[in-house]
TrEMBL record:
Residues in ABC transporter domain copies: 5-240
Protein name from the UniProt record: Iron complex transport system ATP-binding protein
PANTHER family documented for this protein: FE(3+) DICITRATE TRANSPORT ATP-BINDING PROTEIN FECE-RELATED, IRON(3+)-HYDROXAMATE IMPORT ATP-BINDING PROTEIN FHUC
Compartment annotation: Cell membrane
Topological relation to the membrane, as annotated: Peripheral membrane protein
GO cellular component annotations of the record: plasma membrane
Organism domain of life: Bacteria
Keywords per UniProt: ATP-binding, Cell membrane, Ion transport, Iron, Iron transport, Membrane, Nucleotide-binding, Transport
Single GO BP term: iron ion transport
Amino acid sequence: MTARLTARDLTLRYGDRIVSTRLRLDVPDRAFTAVVGPNACGKSTLLRAFVRLLRPAEGGVTFDGREVGAYPAKALARELGFLPQDPSAPEGVRVRQLVARGRFPHQSLLSSWSEEDESAVVSAMTAAGVAGLADRPVQELSGGQRQRVWIAVVLAQRTPYLLLDEPTSFLDIAHQYQVLELLKRLRDEGRTVIAVLHDINQACRYADHVVAMRDGRVVAQGVPGDVVDAALIKEVFDLPSVVVPDPVTGTPMVVPSL
């Protein structure tokens, strides 16, 4: 697996608080990478650095060999689509209007709304399962419905890379798996997906590549079947467990042994 998106000797901090030190990571191209680890280990911070919402204190992030900070904002947004953990919608905005904002990187002062823009919005709402909510105010929706609307916003961007911070948050179990199946399908279509996931078993089932983090560092990375075992779960999550084959997929399945 090749890498277009890379982090090199990355030190990240918020003020005086250092989150990561000299972190190195290559994101496999056209693969589904799941980033896992305990709360406050630096997963979300890493994604923010990838899309230059956080400037590294040291080191850098490159896309196609170029520092992400050197890209014009719209040019980078046409390559990297990002769903943050807690997005907020303007008051009164309706679902279709919000999803249409995903087309902003493709707009200019001289361009008008195109058939491609309309197709991207309709396709994104359909894929995320919110087409029937198109005329509803976003603020009237449940947390799970809003989460799927935000996924549609990112899909409407039609970027080759999708970076999603906890995309299954607020979703019931059926919708969690529907979203993960969607991400897998996008991977199969040639997209690169990087998602922060809390459920290690979901990560093992759906991801080609798992990145396990703790205390701002990458503890292990690779194909789930190669790296996920009881020793890793103990080191990363401080959780005693037994790792057995998933009865459906054969991928690693973590069973706590408390």
